[in-house]
Amino acid sequence: MFYLNYLDFFLSLLFIFFLILFNLYSFRLLKFLIVAEIIMIIIFILVNLLTIKYEICFSLVYLSIASCEASIGLAILVNMVHFEDKNNVKGGIFVNF
User: Mind telling me which residue stretches traverse the membrane in this protein (predicted)?
Assistant: First the structure.
């Protein structure tokens, strides 16, 4: 369990750096979500270091990190569809949805 938590933490950091290199310049929302996820990871580290037996607080912070990652993935998906269908008239309807 101990190693799994830190493995998830390092995978989240790797995911953040990939997103920064891949698509940071495109969306203000994407920038906000990446900053929010970095803040949640810092809170995750502090909660892990300061509290050992409070699993509910740990679970809430971990859930917020996962929701930030899902939002970032959705923002990247919408950006990819918009980039690929930029010249397509029918693609604009999907992006506006």
Answer: 6-25, 32-54, 60-81
